[in-house]
Amino acid sequence: MAITRRKFLGWMGAAGAGVTVGKSAQAASNKHFTGYPDSMGVLHDIARCVGCRSCEAACNTVNQLPPPEASFKDLTVLDRKRRTTPAEYTVVNRFDATGAGSKPVYRKNQCNHCLEPACASVCFVKAFSKSKEGAVIYDASVCVGCRYCMIACPFEIPTYEYDKALAPRVRKCTMCHPRVQEGKLPGCVESCPTEALTFGKRDDLLKIARERMRKEPDKYIDHIYGEQEMGGTNWLYISNVPFKELGMREDLGVTPAPALTAGALGAVPIVVGLWPVLLTGIYAISQRKDKVAAEEQAVAVEAAQNATKDAAAAELKKTLEMKEKEKETAINMAVKKALEEAAKAQEEAAQAEEGAQAQDAAAPAEDATPEARDDKDAKQTEEDS
């Protein structure tokens, strides 16, 4: 990605401001944030999910994502384990969990919207932030593409638009934040036909989850995933099989991400002070890289054009040779036909001449002279009289 002068200067200004706020950032990272009051969330009841992929289709429509290669009604995609992509904010996976016998179990995977997001704790330009509604939202306008968020996320959710060279972005579920602000349900929740997804205040969702587990203790595992993991999340899960059988990490503990990164963030003032020097180097390298890339592209284009010209010339030569051969064949066939017709006419003339000669040879010899014909006529007259 090319670095413009405007973006470079913006980084310089952000780096200078970061030196003055480093200590406050460190202090904030040591304080556990328990979430905004009345923040919203989603409860995913895995026992109710049937793997219909309706949530995927709704997410695609609401977020205006590119259409998938296969229809959302094609359930053969469940034969392989999938993860989120820039074009798929949520995916459903099937698990043949032993805890549920022979019946398959389905789990929807998307951003869990941590109360204290790891992605936000490592982002030095604050491209990620926790909204009061509960969603972790992203501001592409300030993102510098460092992708620390992808490394930090314990759930491996953020993805990157590697195929967009000019303006790549980090992509993930937004819990349909714009819709929630309008008082609407997230697209996936609204489309779920089995009510495996429930939207509401996080505190209320915890009560609903506990009530379901109380009523059917033999059906559910006695654990609400996301209540404490990594300090808590706004996306919660209850399940009829152990979470480890669904590919969900059980080694995260209850410590929020910022507390784990507090030591690293304490060095932010020193590191940020070096950013102008580092960014200058990055800018110079980027410019050199762009120049080399442009030169390589020009060479590649020229080589492609030459290859195209050579291929066109070879094809033209082949076509001309073929046409010449066809012309030669046509001439040879015409000459052969003319010779055959001439030979046939000559043969017919010879046969006609031979017939005439045979007829002449069969005529009486006395008829050959006028005197003989006169004697014959006289004799015939005498016989008649």
Compact description:
A hairpin with a 5-residue loop joins strand 4 and strand 5 (136-138). With 385 residues, this protein is mainly alpha-helical. Strands 8-1-9 form a three-stranded mixed β-sheet.
Question: Would you give an account of this structure?
Answer:
The protein has 385 residues and is mainly α. The chain has eleven helices and nine strands. Strands 8-1-9 form a three-stranded mixed β-sheet. A hairpin with a 5-residue loop joins strand 4 and strand 5. Helix 1 crosses helix 10. It is elongated.
Helix and strand string, N-terminal first?
HEHEEHEEHEEHHEHEHHHH
- Radius of gyration, in Å, reads 46 Å
Strand percentage? 5-15%
The dominant shape is: elongated
Low-pLDDT stretches are: 12-29
Helix content: 40-55%
Strand order of the largest sheet: 8-1-9
Largest beta-sheet characterization: 3 strands, mixed
Mean pLDDT across residues: 83
* Separation, N- and C-terminal Cα atoms: 135 Å
Class from helix and strand fractions: mainly alpha
**From the structure provided, what is the oligomeric state, counting identical versus distinct chains?**
single chain
Helix tally?
11
Total strand count, please?
Answer: 9
Topology (SSEs and partners):
Layout: H1 5-29, E1 40-45, H2 54-62, E2 91-95, E3 105-109, H3 118-122, E4 128-130, E5 136-138, H4 148-152, E6 159-160, E7 170-171, H5 177-181, H6 187-191, E8 197-201, H7 202-215, E9 235-238, H8 257-260, H9 262-266, H10 268-362, H11 370-384
Parallel strand pairs: 1-9
Antiparallel strand pairs: 1-8, 2-3, 4-5, 6-7
Helix pairs in contact: 1-10
